[in-house]
Amino acid sequence: MHPFEIYSRAVLSYRLGDGGGRYATRSASAASLDVLARQGARAGHCVLLGVGSGQAARELAARLPAGTGYTVCELHPEQARACGEGVPLLVDDSPVAVAWLLFSVGLACANSICLLNPEIDDPKARARFQAVQKLHASLTPLGGAAAPSGQTLSIGAILRPDEPDLEGFFAALPGHALEAVVVWDADRVPGNLPASPVPVNHLAHRLDNDFAAQRNRMLDACRGGWVLYLDGDERLEPSLAGLLDSLPERGGCGAFAFPRLGLTPAGVKVGWGLWPDLQVRLFRRAPGVRFVRPVHERLEGVSGPTGLVVGASIRHLSDLTSSPEFLARKHAVFDAAGGFSGLHRQNSEYPVLPESFFSSLAEKPVVAMWPQKVGFTPL
Is there a single domain that holds both residue 113 and residue 159? Predict the structure, then answer.
């Protein structure tokens, strides 16, 4: 069974939002479908963007020569539900998630083509699908040997003394790093700290509702040529930890973004852009590289393009390790830092897929270039 089929059935059973609702459709001519079929056959795999009424999708499937791959993608769950049976679908209301899924299973611009369904008669819907086209055309694998780069690595974190599972966090730090730098949200460094496989420089400073300033304190104390920063509820998958030595400066990149799996007791959160939840977490330390914004901070001043790691993730464990009370306190801190009231909160239900689904996508991690020229940002 193809993973797209599993994804389609699992996601459509949940309320993913309307993703813009349904869109207007028009009839597709036989001539336009013949053109799409020829383009798909030349590429080897035809990705049809938009299920439309379902009619053109079925007719195109019949026109494609034997041996040509075929996938239909939809960004509007309500449209997908209305098209009827008989059309296998890849559905998510995030253009980034759809493009990432295609790339994760090896469908890049070198061996596939993304084509707009001629039935789509809505400019806003077409623009959303065109975003998938641009991402698909721009995501290209970075070649080069995966040998150790020789660069030194600092691991940075800002932590709270009451952070759940601090033992697990420190124990999971990559042992080949030069150091770890931890800034505690406290007046003094806590006692009885967990063991770590790398030397740790512990500092203490109150957060004072400014996450960027706290991250910059962390950054200023780092000595490595590159910095990997993590939150206390995050762990690197072994496959990602094993890549860290070979990533620095690969392809001239100044930073790397990783997908993040939001784990819950029921599975991994999906839909609404909850996956791949790309996070820029590894970057070259250099003058001018700083964190900005007091909440949902972001990195600025990085020189060079951003690379992507496909098929190796950060595991986000907050829903597994934290009590509802701790999460409520954490969300209140986010609100205070941003000047909000009640904006950050835990939903009672999320659409999910089993974690095994994501491990089945890419046979091995792939490093790609982030398509900055199309105007997207990983954060």
Answer: no
Percent pLDDT > 70 in the chain is 88
177 occurs within a structural domain: yes
Provide the number of structural domains found in the chain: 2
| Cα–Cα distance for residue pair 22/79, rounded to 1 Å | 5
pTM higher than 0.85: yes
User: According to the model, what pLDDT value does residue 91 have?
Assistant: 84
Contacts of 331 (CB under 8 A, 6+ apart): 344, 345, 346
Domain final residue pick, 105, 138, 171: 138
DSSP result, 312-365: --EEE-HHHHS-HHHHHHHHHHHHHHHT-SS-S---S---EE-HHHHHTT-SS-
Residue 371 CB partners (closer than 8 Å, separation 6+)? 134, 135, 137, 138, 139
In residues, how long is the chain?
A: 379
Question: Mean pLDDT, to the nearest integer, of 235-248?
Answer: 92
The token pair that represents 13 in the structure block: 């059973």
